Amino acid sequence: MGKRFACHRISKGQAQARAVVSGDKLCFYQVEPESGIVMERAHTLEGKKISKSVLIFPGGKGSSVVQADGLYQLNMHGNMPSAMIIQYPEPVLVSSAIIMEIPMVDRVEAAFYDTVRSGDLILVNADEGYLELFPELAPSV
What is d(CA 4, CA 60) in angstroms, rounded to the nearest whole number? Predict the structure, then answer.
Protein backbone atom coordinates (compact mmCIF):
# COMPACT_ATOMS: atom_id res chain seq x y z
CA MET A 1 0.00 0.00 0.00
CA GLY A 2 1.23 3.44 -0.89
CA LYS A 3 0.98 6.80 0.80
CA ARG A 4 -2.35 8.61 0.28
CA PHE A 5 -2.89 12.30 -0.27
CA ALA A 6 -6.19 14.17 -0.42
CA CYS A 7 -7.04 16.12 -3.55
CA HIS A 8 -9.94 17.88 -5.28
CA ARG A 9 -11.58 16.43 -8.38
CA ILE A 10 -11.71 18.56 -11.49
CA SER A 11 -12.42 15.84 -14.05
CA LYS A 12 -13.73 12.45 -12.99
CA GLY A 13 -12.00 9.13 -13.48
CA GLN A 14 -9.15 6.98 -12.28
CA ALA A 15 -5.74 6.20 -13.74
CA GLN A 16 -2.52 4.62 -12.59
CA ALA A 17 0.79 5.43 -14.28
CA ARG A 18 4.32 6.70 -13.73
CA ALA A 19 4.72 10.34 -12.71
CA VAL A 20 6.25 12.97 -14.95
CA VAL A 21 6.90 16.05 -12.81
CA SER A 22 7.38 19.52 -14.30
CA GLY A 23 8.34 22.69 -12.48
CA ASP A 24 7.37 24.71 -15.58
CA LYS A 25 3.98 25.53 -17.02
CA LEU A 26 3.27 23.53 -20.16
CA CYS A 27 2.02 24.52 -23.60
CA PHE A 28 0.51 21.37 -25.07
CA TYR A 29 1.06 22.78 -28.55
CA GLN A 30 4.78 22.35 -27.83
CA VAL A 31 4.35 18.58 -27.40
CA GLU A 32 4.81 16.42 -30.49
CA PRO A 33 1.46 14.63 -31.00
CA GLU A 34 2.95 11.57 -32.71
CA SER A 35 5.33 10.81 -29.83
CA GLY A 36 4.08 12.70 -26.77
CA ILE A 37 7.54 14.27 -26.37
CA VAL A 38 7.89 17.86 -25.11
CA MET A 39 9.66 19.89 -27.79
CA GLU A 40 9.78 23.30 -26.08
CA ARG A 41 13.37 24.52 -25.76
CA ALA A 42 14.70 25.01 -22.21
CA HIS A 43 11.55 23.49 -20.66
CA THR A 44 11.98 21.25 -17.60
CA LEU A 45 10.54 18.39 -19.67
CA GLU A 46 12.30 19.10 -23.00
CA GLY A 47 12.85 15.74 -24.72
CA LYS A 48 10.72 13.85 -22.18
CA LYS A 49 7.60 11.84 -22.99
CA ILE A 50 4.35 12.77 -21.23
CA SER A 51 2.05 10.26 -22.95
CA LYS A 52 0.37 7.68 -20.74
CA SER A 53 1.86 9.32 -17.62
CA VAL A 54 0.45 11.08 -14.60
CA LEU A 55 1.48 14.60 -15.58
CA ILE A 56 2.20 16.83 -12.58
CA PHE A 57 2.61 20.49 -13.52
CA PRO A 58 1.83 24.01 -12.32
CA GLY A 59 -0.51 24.92 -15.18
CA GLY A 60 -0.87 25.60 -18.85
CA LYS A 61 0.51 28.43 -20.92
CA GLY A 62 -0.36 29.86 -24.28
CA SER A 63 -3.66 30.85 -25.80
CA SER A 64 -6.81 28.82 -25.35
CA VAL A 65 -6.68 27.68 -28.98
CA VAL A 66 -3.19 26.20 -28.74
CA GLN A 67 -3.96 24.52 -25.42
CA ALA A 68 -7.15 22.85 -26.61
CA ASP A 69 -5.75 21.92 -30.02
CA GLY A 70 -2.51 20.62 -28.52
CA LEU A 71 -4.44 18.33 -26.18
CA TYR A 72 -6.78 17.30 -29.00
CA GLN A 73 -3.82 16.37 -31.23
CA LEU A 74 -2.25 14.30 -28.44
CA ASN A 75 -5.58 12.57 -27.94
CA MET A 76 -5.95 11.83 -31.66
CA HIS A 77 -2.54 10.12 -31.67
CA GLY A 78 -3.12 8.17 -28.44
CA ASN A 79 -0.44 10.14 -26.59
CA MET A 80 -2.49 11.94 -23.96
CA PRO A 81 -1.40 11.82 -20.32
CA SER A 82 -3.35 9.18 -18.38
CA ALA A 83 -4.15 11.77 -15.69
CA MET A 84 -3.14 15.31 -14.74
CA ILE A 85 -2.35 16.86 -11.39
CA ILE A 86 -2.37 20.64 -11.75
CA GLN A 87 -1.61 23.37 -9.25
CA TYR A 88 -3.25 26.32 -11.05
CA PRO A 89 -6.13 25.12 -13.25
CA GLU A 90 -7.60 27.38 -15.88
CA PRO A 91 -10.87 27.06 -17.81
CA VAL A 92 -9.36 25.79 -21.09
CA LEU A 93 -7.42 22.94 -19.49
CA VAL A 94 -10.31 22.06 -17.20
CA SER A 95 -12.85 21.94 -20.01
CA SER A 96 -10.44 20.01 -22.25
CA ALA A 97 -9.82 17.41 -19.53
CA ILE A 98 -13.55 17.01 -18.98
CA ILE A 99 -14.34 16.72 -22.70
CA MET A 100 -11.47 14.29 -23.35
CA GLU A 101 -12.25 12.34 -20.16
CA ILE A 102 -8.80 12.71 -18.57
CA PRO A 103 -8.84 12.48 -14.78
CA MET A 104 -7.62 15.83 -13.44
CA VAL A 105 -7.18 16.96 -9.84
CA ASP A 106 -5.87 19.96 -7.94
CA ARG A 107 -5.63 21.18 -4.31
CA VAL A 108 -3.29 18.33 -3.41
CA GLU A 109 -1.76 18.32 0.05
CA ALA A 110 1.54 20.25 0.08
CA ALA A 111 3.45 17.19 1.37
CA PHE A 112 2.71 15.43 -1.93
CA TYR A 113 4.88 17.89 -3.87
CA ASP A 114 7.75 17.37 -1.41
CA THR A 115 7.52 13.60 -1.86
CA VAL A 116 6.71 12.85 -5.52
CA ARG A 117 9.44 12.30 -8.11
CA SER A 118 9.32 11.53 -11.81
CA GLY A 119 9.09 7.77 -12.23
CA ASP A 120 7.02 7.18 -9.08
CA LEU A 121 3.93 5.07 -9.62
CA ILE A 122 0.75 7.02 -8.83
CA LEU A 123 -2.89 6.10 -8.64
CA VAL A 124 -5.14 9.10 -9.31
CA ASN A 125 -8.64 8.48 -8.00
CA ALA A 126 -10.43 11.70 -8.88
CA ASP A 127 -13.80 10.09 -8.17
CA GLU A 128 -13.00 9.57 -4.48
CA GLY A 129 -10.62 12.55 -4.09
CA TYR A 130 -7.27 10.94 -3.37
CA LEU A 131 -3.89 10.11 -4.85
CA GLU A 132 -1.88 7.08 -3.85
CA LEU A 133 1.87 7.29 -4.30
CA PHE A 134 4.04 4.18 -4.57
CA PRO A 135 7.61 5.61 -4.55
CA GLU A 136 9.13 2.26 -3.52
CA LEU A 137 8.02 0.89 -6.90
CA ALA A 138 9.89 3.57 -8.85
CA PRO A 139 12.54 2.25 -11.23
CA SER A 140 16.12 2.65 -10.00
CA VAL A 141 18.04 5.42 -11.68
Answer: 26
